[in-house]
What we know:
This protein is mostly beta strands.
Amino acid sequence: MNDVIHNPILAGFNPDPSICRVGDDYYLATSTFEWYPGVQIHHSRDLANWKLVTRPLSRASQLDMRGNPDSCGIWAPCLSYADGLFWLVYTDMKRYEGNFKDGHNYLVTAPHIEGPWSDPVHLNSSGFDPSLFHDSDGRKWLINLQWDYRQREGWDRFGGIVLQQYDPEQRRLEGDINNIFAGTEMKLTEGSHLYWRDGWYHLLVAEGGTGYQHAVTMARSKTLTGPYEVHPNNPLLTSRHDPENPLQRAGHADLVDSPEGDTYLVHLCSRPLTGTRLSPMGRETAIQRVEWGEDGWLRLADEGNVPALEVAMSGVTQKLPAHAEHYDFKSATLPDAFQWLRTPYPERLFSLTERPGYLRLFGRESVGSWFEQALVARRQDSIHCSAETTLTFEPEDIQQFAGLIAYYNRFKFHYLAVTLNGAGDKVLSIISCLDDWPNGNLSIAEEGIRIEPDATIRLGLDIHAQELRFRYAQGDQPWQSIGPALDAGLLSDEGSGRAHGYFTGNFLGMAAHDISGRGTHADFQAFCYRRAPLSETR
């Protein structure tokens, strides 16, 4: 695609974008929630083509999310560059349901984007979505929303945006805490960023909640602490009044200037399945061109306030993603596309060296565990896709199982697993959790398909919009379907009966579980992910 950027620029679960530019290089950080390592940082030279360059929160001294509930963990990182350093602030959310939110805000720094990244400095725990503002006088300010636990259910517990100075020498916050912005009638004011331009402090926030009422609000003030005047044409960006727009839930944004002086806004969005409000790919990152008007206010370059699927940019060629991505596990490090859940001790979960050419998973706690679960997976980034792997696994009892999984969280997954039945036969069975919150009860096939002992088995899944089907093959035999069509729409942010929903996206990957505590291993030879058109069930 020439002279146009097609949104989203980061497909599949990449929410809460924060962007900065260093020379000709752009860096974009997104939330990772409970997936380890924490924070994804992508690099680009043209704002259209992006490559993952690092996940900076990668050791126990920086991040340990064992015990964090689903959709907790790393929220809304903010990336900036000043004084020869990259600065990254983020929230590690430990609890978010009910009146309380236990979220701790931290700062790490690095001289280069690849690191080394420092151990974290604890900043505060007063609310989430921290952002660091480097003022023109050299002072640094932390802003974040303040959480007000006193409000009743249905009221606005988002208690305004607070600001406090950060002392980099003492590595701590100091001075008065100022509540600089209470938000607008859209409420749920979060995701704040400050900018200095033409004699004004400009405040960018997300409002309306990260669902279908999401929006970007802008305000400005002559003084840092306010009062802040709201944009006369607010909101700056939203899909809330345009249900047919392919980019829904538009909000939570950040700004960057190009070397040529053009301004761009990156923001989260989602692409729900046609005719639904189900987003299995989660919240993604899109980009819009914006312009500063003669009145000093920022507006979309294409007028209005709805996000565009295509953004004109002269001279750019946006590369399409590969139809197929094949991972052979011949390296001693996990391919960049994959992550695991919560723990900073991956050696407890997997090895790429114990059996060269294979990903060896050590069965740990039960599927959906918030502590130590051997599950390695990649994002679903296409409405139509497929995944395949080859498994060698010899379970010894019914408490051991391994296979191919489509996983959203503890309460929403489909798992094609090899295990034993009550008679001691090796079988292939489908295990699902169909949004049974808060109990997590399973749907399990009563009769599994028998598998020959000591045989390798190929496992596959195909997703076509809301439909997921599993398939399998023993040895070199042809593919065979197994089980009924399953609900893929369930594996989405919105596919839930919970009051507050979830915030990640669907992952496809490999898993091993051994609730006997013996850590029985399973070996996976290669993993293939294909985008549409689907591979055929043969």
